[in-house]
Every structure is written in structure tokens, then in C-alpha cells.
Amino acid sequence: MTCQRFGKHRNGLGRFRCPACKRTFTEPHRRVLGTMTTPQASILLALQLLVEGNSIRSTMRITGLDQNTIMKALVLAGEKAEQVMAKRIVNVPVRDVECDEIFGFLGKKQKRVRPEDDQNLGDQYAFVAIERNTKLVLNFALGKREQSTTDAFLKGLRDATAHQRFQITTDGFRPYKYAVPAILGDRCDFAMLIKVYKTSQEGEARYSPAEVSSVEVVPVMGQPDPDRICTSIVERQNLTIRMQMRRLTRLTNAFSKKWENLWAAYCLHFAYYNFCRIHKTLRVTPAMESKLTDHVWDLAELLA
After folding, report:
1. Does the pLDDT value for residue 13 go beyond 70?
2. Would strands 166-170 and 96-106 be described as parallel, antiparallel, or unpaired?
3. H/E stretch holding 260
């Protein structure tokens, strides 16, 4: 005998009643994130709002969830997203890779960090590598803008790419000049695209974008094709990051206070971008264009 619907439980799950014995049942808890008992629909809505650029406070107001619940869901979702990226984006055939760094900060600006503070505070740069043709984010690393972060970033990029020749373009950040030949020297041609900016003119606003006075192309290793030396795609990805991650949006009071929250937000953003979000010019997701998946994932599938 089929049970009949009998309202909903206080946590949002459906209830059912047996017409014969009159016993009631609640549908099983579907836990997408570890041991969290918050209804799946509420968790997915909160995470969807976060990846679409909402702040924690606005997500609280829309979903009615507590701040701690949302932050816990973000961290757990970030862990799952990191696992998906590590499992799926391995030995990917690539042709053109662009690398750049995007500025952010943790807790406070670098000039306000004191010697006794946690040294994770201050500037935190995200190093991002993207495949120019498929728009797939291959790897990212988070840390200070220094040689050690650059080395870790390029080692991750080596694991993500297949052992075949490709071309890589970076900006003029000096550590690339030594790290790329040492880590990727057996599989890539390497060039740097160095932009020279004009000094600010009198009367310009504080946050006016600097004007580029010249662009210098510097072949560093191998025989890079001049027509393929470009960083426009990864710089456009930087705009996507700032639009879709509220904690990275310029000129707001939204910023990360804990390193694990910032890391989780980046992991979730890039996994969602690769597997769930249809790219406007491709009309498919970057993962589909790269032949990593055959359909558009939704957020529940990503976290499963």
C-alpha cells in the first residue's frame, strides 16, 4: 500500500502516513555536506547565492540561515570542490596557458600587519592558470606573492597538464622567469608579456585604473609563437572572480577574516566555474569543452 503525503517536518523534509496503520514517517535526510542536518535545499540555495556574488549577510537575509551555518557549509563545500578539482583536472591536454595573480587580503591590509600578528594576515595573492581556448581553470595557488607560492603553483600546473608541448604566457613577475624553466621546461615554450604603466596624473581619482604606456613581449624559453602570446583571458577571469566572489569585490567592506574561508571560497568558485557555469562564448562549461564531462553539472552534483 502506498503511503500518502502528510505535511512537512519542521526541518522542511516531507512527511508521509500509512493509510492502514496510520503511522507517520519522515523522508530520509539527504546530507550533501558531511553531518550537517540543515535541509539540502537551504544549503544549496545559500551556496548558490555565494557563488553568484552575494555576501554572507545578504545570504543570511535571503535564506534565513545562521551565519555560522553558512560559513560551515562554505568550508565543507570548499573541501569537496578541492577534491573534485584534484581528481578531475589531471593530465589535461592543453595548447595555450595563461597565468596571472589577483590581489586580495586577509583580515587587514599588509601595511597594518604587526610583527606579533598571524603572518597569514595581510596580502594574499591567488595565482591562476587558465587554458586560453577551452577557458578551463587548470590550477590556482593562494599565498604571498613570492617565489615559494610561485613554485607550488607551477608544480600543481604540471600535474594538471598532459606531457605534451604547449605555450605558456605570464606577466612580468620575476619568479616566473626561474620557476617555469625549472618545473615546466620539458613541455612548454615560455614568454612574458610585460605591461609598463604611466605614472598617475595630477587630479586623477585615487582608484582610477592606471594607463598602459607600452607592452613588451619577452621570449624566455623555447620558441613561443608571437601570435599566441597573450594574457587577456586570465585577466578577464580576474574580473569574473571579483564579480562572483563578494570578498574580492573592490571598494566594499567585504573581506575574509580567516584563511580557511578564503581558500574555501576560491575552491568553490573555480569548481563551479569549470563544471557548472556555462561560458557565454563556448555555450558549454569549460569542463565540457575540455572533454572532462559530457553535461552541465548542477551544484548538488558538484558537491556529491
Report:
1. no
2. parallel
3. helix 259-275
Closest listed residue to residue 270, CA positions, set 152, 140, 162, 170: 140
Residue 47 lies in a domain: no
What tens digit of pLDDT does each residue of 245-296 get?
A: 999 998 888 899 999 999 999 999 999 999 999 999 999 999 999 999 999 9
Residue 23 pLDDT: 82
Would you say residue 40 lies in a domain?
Answer: no
Task: CATH number of the domain at 74, please.
Answer: 3.30.420.10
Mean pLDDT of 54-58: 95
Per-residue model confidence (pLDDT) at position 204:
53
Taking each helix axis as running N to C, give the angle between helix 67-88 and helix 56-63, from 0 to 180 degrees, rounded to the nearest 10.
110
Q: Are residues 215 and 161 in the same domain?
A: yes
Residues forming beta bridges with residue 103, ordered by sequence position: 125
- 279 and 162, same structural domain? yes
Phi (first) and psi of residue 13, to 5 degrees: -75, 150
pLDDT in tens, 92-141: 999 999 999 999 999 999 999 999 999 899 999 999 999 999 999 999 99
Q: Looking at the domain assignment, is residue 258 inside a domain?
A: yes
Same structural domain, 287 and 175: yes
- The model's confidence at residue 225, banded by pLDDT at 50, 70 and 90, is very high
d(CA 218, CA 227): 13
Q: What SS3 class is residue 268?
A: helix
Phi, psi of 270 (to 5 degrees): -70, -35
The count of domains in the chain is: 2
- 1 vs 126: CA distance, rounded Å: 57
3 state DSSP class of 194: strand
- Pair 1, 102 in one domain: no
Length of the chain in terms of residues written: 304
Residue 1 belongs to domain spanning: 1-30
Q: What is the reported pTM?
A: 0.87
Is 36 part of a structural domain of the chain? no
493509510: which residue's cell?
Answer: 19
Indicate if 295 and 170 belong to the same structural domain. yes
